[in-house]
Amino acid sequence: SYELPQPPSVSVSPGQTARITCFGDALSNQYAYWYQQRPGQAPVLLIYKDTERPSGIPERFSGSRSGTTVTLTISGVQAEDEADYYCQSTDSSDTWVFGAGTKLTVL
Amino acid sequence: QVRLQESGPGLVKPSQTLSLTCTVSGDSINSDNHYWSWIRQPPGRGLEWIGNIYSSGGTNYNPSLRSRMTISVDTSRNQFSLNLNSVTAADTAVYYCARAVRIAVKRGYFDHWGQGTLVSVSS
């Protein structure tokens, strides 16, 4: 089982807001990071240190935290946002861990 | 622009050793601010961190693979490599190399990824 559970799937219509959560003990005192992986492509960094967005990532992608739950929010979802999304952190034994991944479907 | 490129055999026989190399361009593998990493993804499944190496040669491995793996660095060629021995079909996956930003000791995140290479384990 994954140390960072995520919902297996999220579905939204274009223009709506999608929220993907990730939680676990590994997040109690460690930052979370988010990646987008489109089919057949390598992952791309979306969010680092819970809330920071790298240059070149659209503003509609944002990250937040409440305790040991972190959330990736995609505002005004577009068809091109259909992809798998993974959270990542580090656990207490210095193991870098990924969430199970969430498949975002744009209806 | 930072680029990473994986290379190595696409087919490995069971019980043999999987060997991959990642060539880095656009950055020095001697950087104090980065780790150099391997991640894999079995077909249709999620991402699994394999391990990291620092420019000094210090390593951090996934405990589930530690007994079978070695990551090494060749600073003269700006490359780092993965060896995974005693492979089985369960090691079939797309293998990615990546650069990780070091935010603390053994802490960080992946900001640049290679395109990935599929390695199949089969006789």
What does this structure look like?
- The complex is a heterodimer of chains A (107) and B (123).
- In chain A, 0% of the residues lie in helices and 44% in strands.
- With 107 residues, chain A is an all-beta fold.
- In chain A, the strands form two sheets. In chain A, strands 1, 3, 4, 7, 8 and 9 form a six-stranded mixed beta sheet that branches.
- The N and C termini of chain A lie far apart (29 Å).
- The model of chain A has no long low-confidence stretch (mean pLDDT 94).
- Chain B has no helices and eleven strands.
- Chain B has strands at residues 3-7, 11-12, 18-25, 34-41, 48-53, 59-61, 69-74, 79-84, 93-104, 107-113, 117-121.
- In chain B, strands 2, 4, 5, 6, 9, 10 and 11 form a seven-stranded mixed beta sheet that branches. A four-stranded antiparallel beta sheet of chain B has the order 1-3-8-7, with no helix packed on it.
- In chain B, strand 4 (34-41) and strand 5 (48-53) form a beta hairpin.
- Chain B is globular, with a radius of gyration of 14 Å.
- The interface between A and B is medium-sized, with 25 and 22 residues.
Question: Which terms would index this structure?
Answer:
heterodimer, A: 107 residues, mainly beta, 6-stranded mixed beta sheet, 3-stranded antiparallel beta sheet, 9 strands, globular, B: 123 residues, 7-stranded mixed beta sheet, 4-stranded antiparallel beta sheet, 11 strands
